[in-house]
Amino acid sequence: MASLLGGHANEAESSRVNGKRSICYRLVVLPELTADGELPPGVHIADWDEFESRFGVSSPRRLWLSGRLQAIMRLAAESGQLRRVFVWGSFVTAKPAPKDLDILLIVGEDFEVDRISGPARAVFDSTRAKLLFESDIFWARASIGQKLLDLWLDTYQTSRSFRKRGIVELELP
Fold this sequence. Notes:
Layout lengths: L8 E9 L2 E8 L14 E5 L1 H8 L4 H18 L4 E7 L12 E7 L10 H4 L4 H8 L1 E7 L3 H12 L9 E5 L3
Parallel strand pairs: 3-7, 5-6
Antiparallel strand pairs: 1-2, 4-5, 4-7
């Protein structure tokens, strides 16, 4: 079925619908990298398995940063307020040794840093996050709205050489 749609099945789920067995396929959604080794412009959605297999295992540096990203997401999720996660920069390119992680976390509208546990606070403190996770972490409440979020994402898609490149939005479990 996936080959008929031009994609690859990386996840299959079996269930019964009206007494008949059906299989649902999730197609790989991350596009191929450009000739410059970057994702094409746009926000590309991926689940963790797809993201990790594409960007997190090809070198020791990528493995280490992938572990940092998992820790960041786990700590941020402890608040119960994590809504969306975006990753851009050198980690979502073909570079074998990305410098760091660039992350935007969108949290619930009533999120307050003072209400979260000590270890999780480091995720929301830019200086501590840089030291502990080698990550530039930005965060905003969902109340910023889609228009401002789109502006931020457009900015993050622009490389230092002013070329547009892609961003990944990670699906949350």
